[in-house]
Amino acid sequence: MEDSEKIMNTGQQSPKTAAKSKDQMLSGAAWRTGADMIGKILGVIYIIPWYAWMGRFGNEANSLFSMGYNIYALFLLISTVGIPAAIAREVARYNTLDDPNMAYRLVRQMLGVMLVLGIVASGLMFFLAGPLSALVGGKDSADLIPVMKSLALAVLIFPSMSVIRGYFQGLNQVKAYAMSQLLEQIVRVIWMLAATFAIMKLGSHNWQNAVTQSTLAAFIGMLGSYAVLFYYLQKSGNLNKLINPGPVKSKINALEIFRSTLHTAIPFIVIGSAIQIFKIIDNSTFMNMMPWVTNYSHNELLVLMSYFSANTDKLTMVLLGVALTLGSVSDPLITEHYVQGNRRELATLVGYNFQLYVGFMLPAVIGMSLLTKPIYTIFYQIPSGLQSSLFVFAILQTFLLGLYMIVYPPLTVMDHKRLAMRIFTLTLVIKLVLQVPMILIFHTYGPLLATTVSFLVGVFLFIRKLHELTHFSIKNTVRGIQGATLLTGFMAIVVIIVEIILGFIFGKSPGRIASVFIAAIAGGAGFYTYLWFAAKLGLLEKWFGLRGLSLRRKLHI
């Protein structure tokens, strides 16, 4: 009761305090968004020199890198189990209750728990490197073992690092959080490129060793991140308080928080890792099943896998990251309206979420598909017919995968976790049933086809249940989607015309520099066309409110 009163009293802020809180939130959002954007850009740009320095082994290297990272990403999800968000929530709570020492004790205890979890997860990945490599890489996968072991080092320290990030998030000191993420990416990319250049241009030219050093960069980057976090802890004076916290007013059990968080987070982890799990299934089945029906060597299979998976993933993951961001922004609002019983607002929000997603993602995937040749040339090489068609397939499929990322969270936050788990399970079963026959019949197209069919079923079931729960207006939603589709059509016409004109200037097989100009000019023309029509039809204001109006004024439309 006393705690509740304190929280209620703290909620009665003066206008000055409320303005300060708003400024903190806007500042934090700016830091987080800026760091995330720069990190994503670095995560794409590094591919150009890295792939080029790998020479004729670029595709094999990218596949080896990707196979290791798919397993690694799954281990990261499992090893953190939603703890950073829980830490942030509890730290904010105890600071609100004027018991900061309890927050310090909580963080110190959770550091111990997550350190143990990191050791366990890292040990499993390290000692199971052989079996895991054989699972995802086929029988001739000895070159994947050192990659797995190098990534196990990053798994060792990530869980404890995530606790400190959660602590800063709970204090709303987002600058420290954002800077740690940014420096992690910068250090990682520098190590990757420096090591790859040293090995492939100055040293042994062993591309497998270069890939291992590139994956070891994840661990080196996290060391840089840790250094930033400790710097901010020391600068703020919180490091000594974490080591020696004072007397507390409350009681807490870190293991109990861990257990309750685990119980809550498991559905989110399992359902949210669907794309990662499907990628691992693709790796393991393709590399193990293709030798049954073809005479391709291990390295030739790595090349083929880079065509439909590794090469496309580096670019499509940026789009999926935006889809995840769109979903995460709406989740708290959906939760709020659901808890308060505001069914009308809930229905409006869900329908608006679909329109906003289509308004962003549809032109993005269509634009990338139309500019496949210059984009692929910029990052990799002039694509063959097979490379181009697989790239287009994967890009278009991203629309479906991104849609999945925004339709499952509302069910979980609306207390329908079991149903969401059942839909995910059905999606996974369909994938497993179709995977092998699709590969045996369609080869490189097989994994993409199996994923597409399974996610179509899953997304349909999620949307149908969302409609049953919220009764969002299908008519209004479809009308908004039709608007985005029409604008995308106009955009596509402009991109095609500009690309044809530039083709006369730069020739049929433009190199990397020419492809940059083609992608920038044709893509820019298409993007402006989309914004211009969206502004004229009033869709910018509908999607983005006052920000859309501001954008319209800046574009003088």
UniProtKB/TrEMBL annotation:
GO terms for cellular component: plasma membrane. It comes from the Bacteria. InterPro entries: PG_synth_SpoVB, Poly_Biosynth_Transport, Polysacc_synth. The chain crosses the membrane at residues 29-51, 71-89, 110-130, 150-168, 189-208, 214-233, 346-366, 386-407, 419-439, 445-463, 484-507, 513-533. It is a multi-pass membrane protein. Residues 1-20 are annotated as: Disordered. It holds the Pfam family Polysacc_synt. Keywords: Cell membrane, Membrane, Transmembrane, Transmembrane helix. Residues 7-16 have a biased composition (Polar residues). It is found in: Cell membrane. This is Polysaccharide biosynthesis protein. The lineage of its organism: Bacteria, Bacillati, Bacillota, Bacilli, Lactobacillales.
